[in-house]
Amino acid sequence: MSETLVQQAPVGANPYVPQLAVVEKIIDETWDTKTFQAVFQDEEFRENFTYEPGQFQQVSVFGVGEATFCLTSSPTRKGYVEFSVKRVGSLTTSLHEAGEGQVVGIRAPLGNYFPYHEWKGKNLLFIGGGIGMAPMRSLLNFCLDNRADYADITTIYGARTPGDLCYTYEFDQWNTNAKLYLTVDAAENDWSDHVGHVPGYLKERSPSPENTIAITCGPPIMIKFALVELDSLGFTPEQIYTTLEMKMKCGIGKCGRCNIGSKFVCLDGPVFSYAQIRDLPPEF
Amino acid sequence: MMMTDKVLSKEKIGEFVDGLSGRYTVVAPVRRDGSPAEFRDVTAQDSIVIDGSAALMPPKDYLLPRYERLMRVDTRDGQVQIEAPVPEAVPRVMLGAWLPDVKALDVLDKVFLDDKFKDPYYAARRENTVTVAVVPLKPRWSWFCTSVDDVTEWKSKADVLSYDLGDAIYFEPITERGAAILDGAALADPTDGQVAAKEGVWKAFAEVPHCAFAGKDLYENLCWDSPIWDDIAQRCVSCGVCTYVCPSCSCFDVQDEVCGSNCIERYRCRDTCQFEDFTLMGAGHNPREQKVPRARQRLMHKFKYQREQFGITACTGCGRCVEMCPVNIDIRDALCTVCSDRIETPAEVK
Amino acid sequence: MDDVQSRIREEARKVLESGQVSLVLGWGKGSTPFKTTPVFIEKPEDVDRLVWNPACVNNLSVYLPKLTKDKKVAVVAKPCDIRSLITLIQERQVSRDNVYIIGLGCGGVVDVFNLDEQDFHIQDVTGLDWDSGKLKVTAGSSEYVLDCSTCLRDMCLICTKRSPAIFDVELGEAVLPEELCAGQSVLPDIPEERRRYWSEQFSRCIRCYACRQVCPSCYCTTCFADRIEPKWTAKKATADEAWMFHATRAMHLAGRCIACGECERACPVDIPIAELQREMNKITSERYKYDAGNSEQDKPLFGQFEDEDFDPAHHSEK
Questions:
Q1: C230 — contact with chain A (CB < 8 Å)?
Q2: Interface residue C62 vs chain B (CB under 8 A)
């Protein structure tokens, strides 16, 4: 079970001050989602920057504000960090519209991370929906880059339509020495893969819980039914992990906003096992 | 350094402040007509109240100002530069803080001075500050300190413990740096009568009758499904005053604002879990949109969650929320009910 | 006012037992003898929780829009609370059919902060009552008879409308205090001085929004002050942002505020917010001959237009 894993030292003596980073590349994922690749301006900081899969970052668009995004890139791929942004409000729209070359502020890495060191030798089952794939992608690519450490790696990933699937350019990687099963709620164009909701597809595939860790992230309704399926397949709450989301401001456990009971999503999370979530108040 | 008690005649308060001003920045509650007094940097000329007799905004308003610039971002010439000036950690003396307020600093310290992410702004104002707690001549009617904790342990929370004797203030140094501020000419050695009077003032405070919930395990009794949340939520108008005047509530918001043609200011300001939009997320989901979850959050955070996090109860019984709530939601009543021991008014316990 | 209190309870019992209403909203005993708290009575056997004394300060109309959405409730109401209710009815936030008004004649209610400044200790107070235009306070073993000007809520001192404007049942009598204050404004006359006055007042504002939350006329789902886009006013508690908030709110309340004074009672730092509203009310009264909360048949001030309306461009004021 994952206890709160202490992460590396924060960005500097003043934990509120971001590091400057330049957005060097923007990838259009879907009609409302883009992935931003940012490079820290300070060379020394950039060279020494490390993080763990599952951690998050606070991205500043100066003048608009700061918002929380997971670190969707894998720490094995150095030199840049990535965050995926769905356009929902003023800050996300600002990011989308400013384009490549914009300077943002980043405070990272924050939060705890997936206890992957406990999972060596195990099978990993990723169950993702839509942009919920973002936090898991960090871990998935990390594990694929450390392939020998893990047994089977399987991903079930779905979205409402084919156009809502993210990271399509990595699907081949996720299907090499690993299995990727895609599904959509409603097919379009020349979609030839599975059609149906993710939890339903999970049930069809019927993975064994034997020596397996399941990681799930996606819309609440998808998670809800995925949990039901995992339970009926025999997965225990200790075997299931997710990342939680609450409104955040400071990201360092001070502003009081993101607590669920006595846990702060920014300090004790965002990674939680279902065994831990069971003990939390039903707040979210 | 000798740790001897001293007494200050009230007409010499100005002289005392003057004497300290050479070595320290003196922080004390400044009187304001009608409004509660507020902690400010003061000189001997200011009208201050250090005997605990006036309504008082908590020390958190000084240590964590309601509006605090965190950084300035300059975007001239296409370059982005960040300046984050932190207040100077000058030596300070904070006079006249109520004893429950000084105890509440324990909570703020745990939040802001943790090892992982020490808050430099809070640290600059807090770490080099000598605290002088005051026990007023008569405990305020709304105080229920004795019901939330063993107050004898609070004596060690301040650098100096002071007591109002009516015409004089009695100072009892607790720490070395507390004793260091008591060497001025304005101070005198206490008489036996004054020592006895001081004991009387402490006794009056320490023997404030308990509310019915005192000693009951609040931690165990506070639960998710308690009917008390509905009762509170029905009356509550979500004004947030309780959290604003609470000495241990510290939730804040961070906002960016354009402050010139090429400059942006990032500041923090007060926020409260009682506001409807506190947990509102970008995509529209809001776990605490209704009043019941907000009512529940406030009490459970104060008496349960922070106890789980830090091992201390965050409420120190200062009674401000009791005095200020416009609809008379009395936290003491709520806690009595939660412990299934409803009494008509806590004041009846005599 | 024991007699009125018994009659309130009787009336409440009657309307609950008959099923006329599903809830009675009134004041109940507070956690101290000098306070009351709103109570929501649903069972006839609970009506004895209702009280009527000078501590019944709250303007209960603030709860009515949500309460009367899908059911009929009875409300025990002072004349000022009823004027708020009239405003809510005019603006279609409450349906007259969904509220049964137990209207009370009033002698003014107490501001606890004023009570705290008297000769007795507030914690010794065990009773408050009206007494022929004065206020009787029982503290310890003594009885004090105080002039109303010492401890009533500021707005009560100038109130002349002490009988309920509309009601389903009227209980009690309006009592004017022996000395009714002339109602002079505390504001300086000269605009520059007045600006300085308000700057000083607003420098204390902590942006808690208590004034807004207790006001029955402030019922917007999202207040302008909470909007992010556009950001009308920053959240920080500085004097100029406070100006923006209070001045805009005063404009939003022009012609809609009935000057109950709850805003300044709720204010933790004693800003005389109601003074600002009284100035607005003076202007709407003089220019448009309109006072809020008179009759539910009235259209809201800014929902009507007459040719003769004051037009500053044409200086048609007398």
A1: no
A2: yes
Kindly determine whether residue B327 and residue C37, on different chains, have CB atoms separated by under 8 Å: yes
Closest CA to C83 of C306, C305, C298, C302: C298
Query: Does B282 touch chain A if contact means CB atoms closer than 8 Å?
Result: yes
Q: Taking CA atoms, what residue in C is nearest to B239?
A: C210
The total number of residues written for chain B in this structure:
350
Helix runs in chain A, H state only: 43-48, 90-98, 133-145, 171-174, 198-205, 220-233, 274-278
Q: Residue A27 class from Cβ within 10 Å (0-12 exposed, 13-18 middle, 19+ buried)?
A: middle
Name all chains with 3 or more CB-CB pairs below 8 Å to chain C: A, B
Please report residues of C whose CB lies closer than 8 A to that of A90. 228-229
Work out the minimum CA distance from A64 to partner chain B, whole angstroms: 6
Digitized pLDDT (tens) for each residue of chain C, 318 residues in all: 468 999 999 999 999 999 999 999 999 999 998 999 999 999 999 999 999 999 999 999 999 999 999 999 999 999 999 999 999 999 999 999 999 999 999 988 988 888 877 788 888 889 898 887 788 899 888 999 888 778 888 888 888 888 999 999 999 888 776 556 555 667 777 888 988 999 999 999 999 999 999 999 999 999 999 988 788 888 888 999 999 999 999 999 999 999 999 999 999 999 999 988 988 888 898 888 888 998 888 888 888 888 888 777 776 444
Kindly list the domain boundaries of chain B, sorted by start residue. Answer: 6-65+88-206, 218-254+269-348
DSSP 3-state assignment of C217?
coil
What is the CATH number for A78? 2.40.30.10
Length of chain A as a residue count:
284
Whether residues A150 and A80 share a domain: the answer is no
- Looking at the fold, whether A122 and A239 belong to one and the same domain comes out as yes
pLDDT tens digits for range B137-164: 999 999 999 999 999 999 999 999 999 9
- Structure ipTM: 0.91
Q: Which residues of A touch C (CB under 8 A)?
A: 89-90
Phi, psi of C247 (to 5 degrees): -65, -40
Tell me, yes or no, whether A77 and A99 share the same domain. Answer: yes
Tokens linked to A125: 């089952």
**A254 within domain boundaries:** no
Using the Cβ of A12 and the Cβ atoms of chain B, whether some distance falls under 8 Å is answered with no
Q: Is A246 an interface residue toward B (CB < 8 Å)? A: yes
Spell out which residues of chain C touch residue B324, defining contact as CB-CB under 8 Å: 268
Residues A121 and A62 placed together within one structural domain of the fold: no
As for how many domains chain A has, the answer is: 2
Q: What range does the domain containing A214 cover? A: 116-243
Residue of A nearest to B124 (CA): A14
Residue A14 domain flag = no
* Residue C135 bridge partners (DSSP): C130, C146
B244, C206 contact by CB (below 8 A)? yes
Q: In this structure, are A46 and A94 located in the same domain? A: yes
Instruction: Provide the residue count of chain C.
Output: 318
Instruction: Select from A89, A110, A131 the last residue of a domain.
Output: A110
* A274 part of a folded domain: no
**Inter-CA distances, A202 with A27, A196, A240, B287, Å:** 29, 10, 14, 28
Query: A9 lies in a domain?
Result: no
Query: Do A93 and A24 sit in the same domain of this protein?
Result: yes
- Which residue in chain C has the smallest CA separation from B324? C268
Cβ contacts of B119 on chain A, cutoff 8 Å: 15-16, 254
- Give the Cβ contact number of residue A4 at 10 Å: 14
Q: Are residues A79 and A147 in the same domain?
A: no
Give the domain-ending residue among A110, A145, A164: A110
Q: Does the beta carbon of C220 lie under 8 angstroms from any beta carbon of chain B?
A: no
Task: Tell whether A89 and A191 lie within a shared domain.
Answer: no
C145–B contact, CB cutoff 8 A: no
Chain B partners within 8 Å of C238 (Cβ):
67
Nearest CA in chain A to C228: A90
Please report residues of A whose CB lies closer than 8 A to that of C229: 90
Residue of B68, B259, B289, B327 to mutate, testing the C interface (most C Cβ within 10 Å of its Cβ):
B327
CA angle B158, B164, B170 (to 5 degrees): 65
